[in-house]
């Protein structure tokens, strides 16, 4: 008699964001038995990504490049080549990451950043899915409390004004920002949505401000988890508590949608951080657990801190351990 075998479905986890925090979580999460989808911001307009998006009108490749590497099982030599950044003395190629140029070349060949990332995902043996939040570059706008406005992700923090809200527009003003293929269905079919860690106004919210994505995040039955930043950021979250971060997210989507917040409670040692290298950071985010609970959130507060290279980061393994506890608790 033949025994029947049943394939147990891996839980579906969608991680939304950008910047340097997202790859840390993905790198740890890919070692677990989960079906990962990364939704990556396309509002970056600075550095190599900004130059490329302005030259050939494509979604900026930098955050996508870092996510592809984080989810790939390529040998280290290959990923080092993909991540190689030309020296600033190299004139025409100065400061460009080789991977950005490769993504740009394939996007031009295929006529789509989305298609380029799918092809590279196969070439780089990515276990999971990587989607740009939109297939076209988006322009981030910030409206400040004094009524003035900044246009462009790289411009928002310069004047260090208090941000009231942000929104996105297509680079072509006649087009409405649209979610890339499969992004909305991935969110609606997920068991868990993870936001962050990353810059609140410039890495996380640009994704949610695409109306289709914001609506999907509001509608999804998935457990929605926000990983709160460890440090405040110049021109973005100065003087913010952890509850202020969540309040801003809820205000932008016009309803409470965060189920659980992960908060680091470990102190950064005095004098450890090199603020010349990490010049966008200010002080540790303060805690307001009562206000968090008033936002309808469950709070998980513990040591998520990792100190490395005179900088402050989330410990990906510790965060993922907590995410899995929440995920399997929610499914049981």
Automatic annotation (TrEMBL):
Is 4Fe-4S a UniProt keyword of this protein? no
UniProt xrefs under InterPro entries: CofD, CofD-like_dom_sf, Gluconeogen_factor
Q: What is this protein called?
A: Putative gluconeogenesis factor
Compartments, as annotated in UniProt: Cytoplasm
- Describe the task this protein carries out: Required for morphogenesis under gluconeogenic growth conditions.
Which GO terms of type biological process are on file? regulation of cell shape
- An annotated GO cellular component: cytoplasm
Specify the species.
Enterococcus asini ATCC 700915
Superkingdom of origin: Bacteria
Q: Which GO terms describe its molecular function?
A: LPPG:FO 2-phospho-L-lactate transferase activity
Family per UniProt?
Belongs to the gluconeogenesis factor family.
* Keywords annotated in UniProt: Cytoplasm
Name the CDD domains for this protein.
Answer: YvcK_like
């Amino acid at each position: 008699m033949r025994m029947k075998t049943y394939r147990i479905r891996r839980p579906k986890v969608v991680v939304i964001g950008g910047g340097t925090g997202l790859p840390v979580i993905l790198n740890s999460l890919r070692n677990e038995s989960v079906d990962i989808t990364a939704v990556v911001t396309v509002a970056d307009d600075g550095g190599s990504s900004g130059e490329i998006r302005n030259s050939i009108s494509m979604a900026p490749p930098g955050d996508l490049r870092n996510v592809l590497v984080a989810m790939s099982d390529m040998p280290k030599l290959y990923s080092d080549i993909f991540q190689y950044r030309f020296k600033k003395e190299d004139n025409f190629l100065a400061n460009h990451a080789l991977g950005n140029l490769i993504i740009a070349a394939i996007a031009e060949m295929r006529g789509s950043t989305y298609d380029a990332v799918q092809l590279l995902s196969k070439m780089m043996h990515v276990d999971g899915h990587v989607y740009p939040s939109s297939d076209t570059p988006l322009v981030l706008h910030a409206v400040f409390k004094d009524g003035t406005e900044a246009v462009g992700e790289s411009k928002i923090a310069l004047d260090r004004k208090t941000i009231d809200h942000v929104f996105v527009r297509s680079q072509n003003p006649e087009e409405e920002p649209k979610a890339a293929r499969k992004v909305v269905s991935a969110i609606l079919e997920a068991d868990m949505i993870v936001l962050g860690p990353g810059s609140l106004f410039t890495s996380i919210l640009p994704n949610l401000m695409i109306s289709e994505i914001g609506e999907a995040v509001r509608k999804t039955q998935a457990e929605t988890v926000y990983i709160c930043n460890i440090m405040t950021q110049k021109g973005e979250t100065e003087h913010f508590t952890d509850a202020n971060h969540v309040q801003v997210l809820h205000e932008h989507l016009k309803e409470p949608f965060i189920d659980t917040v992960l908060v680091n409670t470990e102190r950064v040692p005095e004098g450890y951080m090199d603020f010349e290298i990490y010049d966008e950071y200010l002080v540790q985010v303060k805690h307001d657990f009562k206000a968090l609970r008033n936002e309808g959130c469950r709070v998980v507060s513990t040591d998520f801190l990792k100190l490395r290279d005179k900088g402050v980061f989330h410990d990906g393994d510790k965060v993922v351990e907590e995410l899995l506890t929440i995920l399997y608790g929610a499914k049981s």
